[in-house]
Design a protein that fits this description.
Blueprint (H helix, E strand, L loop, with lengths): L4 E7 L2 E8 L4 E5 L10 H9 L3 E5 L18 H14 L5 E6 L1 H12 L4 E7 L12 H9 L4 H4 L5 H9 L1 H10 L23 H11 L5 H8 L1 H7 L12 E6 L10 H12 L3 E7 L6 H4 L1 H12 L6
Parallel strand pairs: 3-4, 3-5, 5-6, 6-7, 7-8
Antiparallel strand pairs: 1-2, 2-4
Length: about 300
């Protein structure tokens, strides 16, 4: 991507690579699975042009950032710690934060643990999930969907990696980005149905494949495999609220919007858990990767929200 500067800093015992563009208040972009910094290519220049300093890291286990071995090194606390170190290295007290997918989960946790470091939070796709005292996300998903849910399959070391190798990374990425709502949960079993969406080029697909060749898929899957440990370690925050000004944006064709109880929570209960939630936006006909599918719409919503804050 032209115009970005690539940098690497030391944080929390790892080396973290990030790209940056622009000057002004920092906007920290947190990517999801399976993207890396490149997932924000349709946001970085737009935010820099709008007067912000866009910073998009490869999070732990992705791209040119370190990938420690062992799922125990990929808890919420590890990853939030990496980001606090990044903000410290940038010598910034507070930042605007934009998140998607796994980055959304981490963004919620960052705002929960360290609201003093976040000016405002714009979250895409993954709504806040308060810690359930009955069990971890893995346990609750197993009860709701059985062992066939992809997050449950991801728990078994080596199994998904072997499936990916058998269908090739190119086909996996094509499925992840192009799968329709009704096909989402079975994407590893239907490689012949893969079709790249209109909003992604073959060149962009090749970039994702090349980035994952650096560490393989195990580090990214370790985020899922650390969910049980994250649940254990975050007991001190049970019942805590996200006390950061926020907006939430989701597509109505995102599988997450169809989870049992999701709509009621998104349009009702979430406001109690996120008291400073300013707006919930549902984009009609849009799927999971809304920042890539409808970048102008998503960017406009976030920039309009951020305009209401002074940088401190």
């Amino acid at each position: 991507m032209e115009g970005v500067t690539h940098r690497t800093i030391s944080t929390n015992g790892i080396s973290m690579h990030f790209v940056e563009m622009g000057s002004g208040p920092i906007v920290l972009f947190l990517h999801g699975f399976p993207e890396g910094w490149y997932g924000w290519r349709k946001q970085i220049a737009a935010f820099a042009k709008a007067g912000y300093h866009a910073v998009a890291p490869d999070m732990r286990g992705y791209g040119d950032t370190s990938a420690p071995e062992g799922a125990e090194n990929y808890t919420f606390l590890h990853i939030v710690g990496d980001l606090i170190g990044l903000l410290d290295a940038l010598q910034v007290k507070k930042a605007f934060v934009v998140t998607h997918d796994w980055g959304a989960i981490i963004g919620w946790q960052l705002s929960l643990y360290r609201p003093d470091r976040v000016i405002a939070l714009a979250t895409l796709s993954v709504y806040f999930t308060r810690r359930n005292p009955k069990g971890s996300m893995v346990q609750l998903l197993t009860e709701a969907y059985g062992k066939e849910h992809y997050m449950i399959k991801f728990q078994i070391p080596g199994k998904v990696e072997a499936q990916i190798a058998s269908i090739t990374p190119e086909v996996l990425f094509t499925h992840v980005f192009g799968t329709q709502l009704e096909q989402t949960l079975g994407f590893l079993e239907r490689p012949k149905e893969a079709r790249l969406p209109d909003w992604m080029s073959e060149e962009e697909l090749a970039y994702y494949v090349a980035e994952f060749s650096k560490h393989g898929f195990t580090p990214a899957l370790n985020y899922y495999r650390a969910l049980n440990l994250s649940w254990e370690l975050t007991a001190p925050w049970s019942g805590s609220k996200v006390m950061v000004p926020s907006i939430f944006i989701i597509g109505d064709r995102d599988l997450l919007y169809e989870f049992p109880g999701a709509k009621d929570y998104i349009h009702g209960g979430m406001a109690a858990d996120v008291p400073f939630l300013k707006e919930t936006i549902v984009l009609e006909g849009v799927q999971h990767f809304l920042h890539l599918e409808k970048p102008e719409v998503v960017n406009d919503h976030i920039l309009s929200f951020f305009k209401g804050f002074s940088y401190m």
